[in-house]
Structures are given as C-alpha cells and as structure tokens.
C-alpha cells in the first residue's frame, strides 16, 4: 500500500477523475488560503462544488469521511469564502466529501457524498 502522502495524492487524482467522468468541471485543485486547503473546487449545474478528499488505508479506526471535523469544516468554509470573493463567483456552493478506501482485495473504492456538510455546520 502507498505511504500516507502517496495515498492522499492518489486519492485526490482518483477523485478528480471521478468528478470529470460525472460531468463536473474542475476549476482548481489544492486551493490554499492562509492555513486552509480545499482539495478540489469544481462546477456542475451552476453550483460551485467544494470537495474534501479523505483517504485511509483501512477503516479499522474510522471511515475517511469521519475525519472531517468541525475545525476542518471551518477551515474549508473560510477558504471557500475567500475563493468566491477572489474569483467573483456568485453561484450557490455545495460541500462534498469523497472518501477513498481499499476493498478486501486492495482496490481503491470511491464514495462520493454530495452535500456532506453545510457552512453553518462549522459553527
């Protein structure tokens, strides 16, 4: 299995491929604002889709999406607000999570969770 950083990069690449295959337009990857980072910002159906990608080599301790804490949500929302202002975007925003986890045979499985959280979840 890949190391932690390799798995994260691979998961982000797989997530971006998944989104493209499903009709999303990738606007930016790894958007940074202060200490926050958004893995993928995409667009579909006139929505801005802010996507957090989480990968784990096992779900023995927690599912990947369970690692998206209130603190992480606050950070993502802050970066998303900055992105919208910087690029003068006026569309509605949806926050998704894509989790990547190997199955019993080691094949990486993608689970897309649309509308996984809302900006007010950060409060």
TrEMBL record:
GO MF term (any one): nucleic acid binding
InterPro entries: Restrct_endonuc-II-like, tRNA_endonuc-like_dom_sf, UPF0102_YraN-like
Pfam family, one: UPF0102
Gene3D superfamilies per the UniProt record, alphabetical: 3.40.1350.10
Keywords assigned by UniProt, alphabetized: Endonuclease, Hydrolase, Nuclease
CDD domains: PoNe_Nuclease
Keyword Repeat: no
Signal peptide start and end residues: none
Family: Belongs to the UPF0102 family.
Protein name according to UniProt: UPF0102 protein SAMN05421841_3056
Species, as recorded: Chryseobacterium wanjuense
């Amino acid at each position: 299995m890949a190391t932690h950083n390799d798995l994260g990069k691979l998961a982000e690449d797989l997530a971006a491929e998944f989104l493209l295959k499903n009709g999303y337009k990738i606007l930016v990857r790894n958007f940074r604002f202060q200490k926050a980072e958004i893995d993928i910002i995409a667009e579909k159906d006139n929505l801005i889709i802010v996507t957090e990608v989480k990968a784990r080599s096992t779900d023995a301790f927690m599912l990947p999406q369970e690692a998206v804490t209130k603190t992480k949500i606050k950070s993502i929302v802050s970066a998303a607000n900055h992105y919208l202002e910087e690029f003068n975007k006026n569309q509605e925003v949806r926050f998704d999570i894509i989790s990547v986890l190997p199955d019993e045979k080691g094949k990486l499985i993608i689970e897309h969770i649309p509308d996984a959280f809302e900006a007010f979840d950060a409060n």
